[in-house]
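Lab notebook, bench 4. Still working through the backlog of constructs that have no structural model yet. Next entry is a single chain of 113 residues. Request: give me the structure tokens for it.
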Amino acid sequence: AWLFPKLSPDAPNGVSAWSKWFGQYLRKLEIKDDTSKVFHSFRHSFIDAMRVAKINDELSHALVGHGKGSVHKRYGAKDMVQRFGMQTMAEAISSVAYRGLDLSNVVWVRGIG
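Model written out:
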């Protein structure tokens, strides 16, 4: 299942529209280095943060939707919940930290989406 189904590659104007919007938003904020700061950078940052948190490679690959191999050969870890269990996945994600990022004002609401 896609985390953001409306942004999946199968959705009309999904990923490409979102990436285009994000690039325009960065320029609006006058962030000029848009060749290295793109929407996909979030995925790279998350992978780096999982390495720092010492999350094992197989679980890390599954959490970002990579299979095994280079760029983990292909996307899609369809059975990751069965392989790892929700508790293990939640603990792995909770162990990721971004120094200096304050999310104390974020309100988590269950059932939206």
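Notes after review: The helical segments are 15-28, 41-52, 57-63, 80-84, 86-94. The first helix runs from residue 15 to 28. Flag for follow-up if needed.
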